[in-house]
Specification:
There is one protein chain. Strands 3-2-1-4-5 form a 5-stranded antiparallel sheet. Strand 1 (49-69) and strand 2 form a beta hairpin. With 129 residues, the protein is an alpha+beta fold. It is built from 2 helices and 5 strands. It has helices at residues 2-46, 102-107; strands at 49-69, 75-90, 95-100, 113-119, 122-128. The protein folds into 2 domains: 1-46; 48-128, OB fold (Dihydrolipoamide Acetyltransferase, E2P), CATH 2.40.50.
Length: 129
Amino acid sequence: MTMGFEMFDVMEQLFPFLFIAVFGAILFVIVTVIIKGLRQWSKNNNSPVLIVEARVVNMRQDTRVNHHHANDGHMASHHSSTRYYATFQVDSGDRIELAVSGKECGMLAQGDAGKLTFQGTRYLGFQRT
């Protein structure tokens, strides 16, 4: 019987260390994501605004759905988000994929040619010629 109590004592002693380790790992991931986003934002702000001849070669969307379940196991609600991307090919043959709004995605069509305006990885607009 004493074996059970010894195991409980070990777990009681390990719990604070495990809690701190898991909390630290989660905090590390959150801080890393924030720093990465701030670096990309800063890099975009420091990049020149470029206007180049380009053609729309591909369009795609990334839809994510999150389901939230009630305590009784039934679905209580769900949330979905969609991100839109357009791939442009410039005269040199290079391709650039940029995130665009849903409205912009609806205005673009594969094969459109025109002037692409962007800053780093930030899409600023596309004007057909």
